[in-house]
């Protein structure tokens, strides 16, 4: 779910990954397990590969639409970003989200920070065969900043004053003020380069991207097939097709991999990995970073939850280690950002598990005789998490009713209408801290100091200054407790032997296919 300025301000980031997989950083997280990343074997030379192979990939959640301009949900980014659609720049998930060239080979920033100049690759084409030029890139960004833009990412480009194409290979972006988020925003959906004049209403079934794969077939409720673009401007993909299989239930996903229906399984339930780790001659298990934060949100418009003592009591009543044990893997973080963000710090000491103090806080807030709350809980999340929440809160005098809902209902009821008391959902989109600087976001959290630090971070002169401001803001958010961050997910990806070049990190956000390869 997206909308947003810096780090997706306004973007609800869901990896609606139904298996509570956990997020690894290569270290032992506070209260978490060893998440050391496994490595893949080097890809063999082309004469050892089946260059006409089809790779079948299990993913969890299917997009509601393929219109990447207007449709929310990271399942679209997972399938289409860098594969079907491209921007001037992209991110390298293997290098802590380093910004790297995409359709631009290089770029410069002026000394005053107000002008960015991008130099395009040569011979790039759209899937209809027409050349991609700077005029297309400029037009695409102009659609983001146009009054009344329908783009989900339009607000990320509020600093942009003008976009121009001084020659066919050059794009110039002029800003109203410094924007430390501009390059990051360009790596996301808002930076996609469309063919000039694209009818965005048609994108649900008629893409015309510039990436190495084209949309071949979408069997709603089952599979999405991407086919190699033979005249792709960059290095040719080493597989002919990739089929995404949308399999929600974890055991069904395991069976699909074990029986050969799928070659790669993303979002593998950590409690079900034994079937693959015990068959190391047939499968590899890749552990990677994620940005998937399982978040318990508090609606601050609710009379009880408007009291910070109640919010802190709930946080202190919840045993994160018990949740991680029940789920099978995870990392405690204590705040709203993952370790790969430059403004991360370990905040697990804030509202650490202390049911005795939780009872005192509830009594001070006037709820010493008990409190009843309802949590909106998407139906594709496993019951183990809600079971721990119910048990922990009961221990301090809170009766928790679990209202299980379809995810589309959650989107309407919670995200859109703010009609809830508590809510559990995965916030999965990378660098989405800006949500906490939006008083209209579904948390209804409104801290003017956090908002000011965030605005100042946007216009900071240096990355160090930006990071320092955001660290202060992140800590303040945790201290204010608009949410409880239950754990960070570890990306467990199962790969059949003989498959190479599989994405390893942040696989719920993006799943680039250009390096996939299959042995003969």
UniProtKB/TrEMBL annotation:
Alphabetically, the GO molecular function entries are: peptide transmembrane transporter activity
The signal peptide, as residue positions, is: 1-22
* Keyword Signal tagged: yes
GO terms for biological process? peptide transport
The protein's UniProt keywords, in alphabetical order, are: Signal
Full protein name: Peptide/nickel transport system substrate-binding protein
Q: What is the lineage of its organism?
A: Bacteria, Bacillati, Actinomycetota, Actinomycetes, Mycobacteriales
Can you tell me where the transmembrane regions are? none
Q: Which Gene3D superfamilies match?
A: Dipeptide-binding Protein, Domain 3 (3.10.105.10), Periplasmic binding protein-like II (3.40.190.10)
Question: Which Pfam family, giving just one, matches this sequence?
Answer: SBP_bac_5
Q: Which residues belong to any copy of the Solute-binding protein family domain?
A: 98-445
Q: Which domain of life is it from?
A: Bacteria
User: Has UniProt tagged this entry with the keyword Iron-sulfur?
Assistant: no
């Amino acid at each position: 779910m997206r909308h947003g300025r810096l780090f997706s301000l306004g973007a609800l980031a869901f990896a609606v990954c139904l298996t509570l997989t956990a997020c690894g950083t290569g270290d032992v997280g506070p209260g978490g397990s060893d998440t050391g990343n496994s490595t893949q074997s080097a890809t063999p030379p082309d004469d050892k590969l089946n260059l006409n192979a089809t790779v079948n990939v299990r993913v969890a959640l299917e997009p509601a639409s393929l219109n990447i301009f207007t449709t929310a949900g990271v399942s679209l980014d997972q399938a289409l970003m860098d594969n079907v659609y491209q921007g001037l720049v992209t991110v390298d998930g293997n290098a802590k989200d380093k910004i790297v060239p995409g359709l631009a080979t290089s770029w410069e920033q002026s000394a005053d920070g107000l002008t960015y100049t991008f130099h395009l690759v040569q011979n790039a084409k759209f899937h209809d065969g027409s050349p991609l030029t700077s005029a297309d890139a400029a037009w695409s960004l102009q659609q983001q900043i146009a009054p009344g833009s329908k783009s989900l990412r339009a607000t990320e480009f509020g600093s942009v004053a003008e976009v121009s194409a001084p020659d066919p290979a050059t794009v110039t972006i002029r800003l109203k003020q410094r924007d430390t988020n501009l390059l990051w925003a360009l790596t996301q959906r808002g930076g996609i380069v469309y063919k000039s004049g694209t009818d965005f209403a048609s994108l649900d079934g008629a893409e015309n991207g510039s990436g190495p794969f084209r949309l071949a077939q979408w069997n709603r409720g089952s599979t999405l097939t991407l086919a190699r673009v033979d005249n792709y401007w960059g290095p040719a993909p080493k597989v002919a097709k990739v089929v995404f299989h949308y399999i929600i239930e974890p055991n069904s996903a395991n069976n699909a991999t074990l029986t050969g229906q799928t070659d790669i399984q993303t979002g593998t339930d950590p409690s079900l990995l034994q079937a693959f780790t015990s068959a190391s001659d047939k499968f590899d298990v890749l552990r990677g970073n994620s940005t998937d934060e399982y978040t318990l949100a508090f609606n601050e418009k609710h009379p009880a939850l408007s009291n910070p003592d109640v919010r802190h009591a709930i946080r202190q009543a919840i045993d994160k280690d018990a949740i991680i044990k029940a789920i099978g893997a995870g990392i405690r973080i204590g705040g709203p950002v993952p370790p790969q963000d430059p403004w991360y710090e370990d905040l697990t000491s804030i509202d650490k598990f202390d049911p005795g103090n939780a009872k005192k806080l509830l009594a001070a807030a006037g709820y010493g005789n008990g409190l009843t709350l309802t949590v909106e809980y998407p139906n594709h999340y496993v019951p183990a998490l809600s079971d721990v929440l119910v048990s922990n809160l009961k221990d301090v005098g809170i009766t928790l009713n679990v209202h299980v809902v379809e995810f589309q209902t959650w989107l309407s009821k919670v995200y859109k209408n703010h009609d809830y008391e508590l809510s559990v959902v995965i916030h999965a989109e990378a660098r989405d801290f800006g949500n906490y600087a939006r008083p209209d976001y579904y948390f209804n959290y409104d801290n003017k100091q956090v908002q000011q630090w965030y605005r100042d971070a946007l216009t900071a002169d240096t990355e160090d200054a930006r990071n320092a401001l955001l660290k202060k803001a992140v800590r303040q958010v945790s201290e204010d407790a608009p949410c409880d961050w239950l754990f960070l997910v570890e990306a467990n990806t199962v790969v059949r032997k003989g498959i190479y070049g599989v994405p390893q990190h942040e696989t719920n956000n993006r799943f680039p296919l250009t390096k996939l390869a299959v042995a003969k």
